[in-house]
Amino acid sequence: MRSPDVLADEFRARGWKLTAQRRLLFTLLHENDRHPSAEALHLVASERMPGISLRTVYQTLNDLAEMGELDALDLGTGAVRFDPNTEEHHHLVCDVCGTVFDVYVPQLSGLQVAGPTGFHTASAHLILTGTC
Question: Can you give the pTM of this predicted structure?
Fold first, then answer.
């Protein structure tokens, strides 16, 4: 994800509101490798800025996803998680604590699988589960 200052400029260029709450969220997400849910991000943001609404968190996350700055992930953990790392990568999910880790699997796109004749894979998203 780009820096908070660049995101602020991008929001202005799109004619979107740039509030102190959104700036805080940009900062909390920048270089964040925790894959937070909206609720978890709201909890952290509320510690720094009491009164920030969960609606603002969701709207900002959705705006950033629309811009391609982060990915919304359904990792089977019960809540959508948001990933500011938009590089090609995959995930490890701990079944006990729910922690999500980025992993890189070289040449996954070349993986040969048995399946329907004539099917051409466009992309692959690998989610590995276990215990950390």
Answer: 0.87
